[in-house]
Write a structure and sequence with these properties.
The chain is α/β, with parallel strands linked by helices. Helices cover about 40% and strands about 15% of the residues. The chain has 7 helices and 8 strands. Strands 3-2-1-4-5-6-7-8 form an 8-stranded mixed sheet, with helices on both faces. β2, α2 and β3 form a beta-alpha-beta unit. α1 crosses α7, α3 runs parallel beside α4 and α4 runs parallel beside α6. About 45% of the residues are buried.
């Protein structure tokens, strides 16, 4: 088995996902750039390669069973296994004035769309990639979440958590709950799985609002994707440490 570690990052053609791929590439990982849009995906691969990373493109729509199955087959052909999976692809869903999603007027189809990508898509990709991860001696899974997923913070009136986002925030809470279930299932195995909060990062996802750069936002996910064998699992992290559920 090659000593070069293999990673797959979903939604890696731009923003935080791209910087996660770049950071892992800089650490010597061979990185699969998972993205739906062919042009953006190949542009990201070219940019990563120009920067010295060993990158390859992986056509990937996390909402499609066929796309995810084909992505797993591509990673197997390209690398034969997977050492790190970073589930970064996600959407906020349509918002109203003030970047808000009012629960009293919420379109149920919007909720379904957000959950399909942010939760079901993660389950779909993770399960498709598990056979490849199990071939690794130190498999790691990182689910990119958000501090708005924290029910503790959301329920505390003294904590500023941002606008009400009745589709997006609960979808990330759901993702965190799923992360814990995987960690329970992997107990006693060598697969470490954690959730990562990038913070409020200035990308097109946030309308370029936020004090953090994509590189800063990628740091926690990169750390969790490269944990030592005695590292934590089933936890929720930001730069400063553990986030309360």
């Amino acid at each position: 088995m090659s000593e070069t570690k293999i990673a797959l990052v979903t939604g890696a053609n731009k923003g935080i996902g791209y910087e996660i791929a770049a950071g892992l590439g800089a650490l010597g990982y061979r990185v699969g750039v998972g993205a739906r849009d062919e042009g953006r995906r190949e542009s990201a691969v070219g940019k990563l390669r120009a920067g010295g990373a060993d990158a390859f493109g992986v056509p990937l729509d996390v909402t499609s069973d066929q796309s995810v199955t084909e992505a797993a087959e591509r990673v197997e052909r390209q690398a034969g296994r997977l050492d790190a999976l970073v589930n970064n692809a996600g959407i906020s869903g349509e918002t109203g004035p003030g970047w808000e999603q009012d629960p009293t007027t919420l379109d149920l189809d919007l909720v379904r769309t957000v959950v399909e990508t942010n939760v079901i898509g993660v389950i779909r990709v993770t399960n498709a990639m598990l056979p490849l991860l199990r071939r690794s001696t130190s498999p790691r899974i990182v689910n990119v979440s958000s501090s708005v997923a924290s029910l503790t913070r959301q329920a505390d009136p003294d904590i500023e958590i941002g606008p009400i986002m009745a589709a997006y925030a609960p979808s990330k809470s759901f993702l965190n709950a799923v992360t814990v279930q995987y960690a329970r299932q992997f107990a006693g195995a060598d697969i470490l799985i954690n959730a990562a909060c990038p913070g409020l990062v200035a990308t097109d996802f946030t309308g370029f609002r936020g004090p953090r750069t994509p590189e800063q936002g990628a740091a926690t996910a990169i750390r969790l994707a490269t944990l030592p064998d005695d590292g934590p699992t089933g936890s929720f992290f930001e730069d400063e440490g553990v986030i309360p559920w």
